[in-house]
Design goal:
Blueprint: E1 2-5, H1 9-17, E2 21-32, E3 35-43, H2 46-51
Antiparallel strand pairs: 1-3, 2-3
């Protein structure tokens, strides 16, 4: 499992390139620079990891 703050597009792209799939959104779960923000939750199943191009 991995998570990326909703406004962190670069982090989300890295996770997706590694084969992670966005599983859902945690609404208003964190505070970033004084503002409440959402987070995206990503998952990766072991068998998917082996076939993902970003992993060795």
């Amino acid at each position: 499992m991995a998570a990326a703050e909703n406004g962190w597009q670069a982090g989300a792209r890295v996770l997706e390139k590694l084969g992670f799939v966005r599983e859902g959104t945690l609404r208003e779960d964190c505070v970033v620079t004084g503002e409440v923000s959402d987070s995206w939750v990503y998952g990766l199943i072991k068998r998917q990891r082996r076939s993902s191009p970003g992993w060795r």
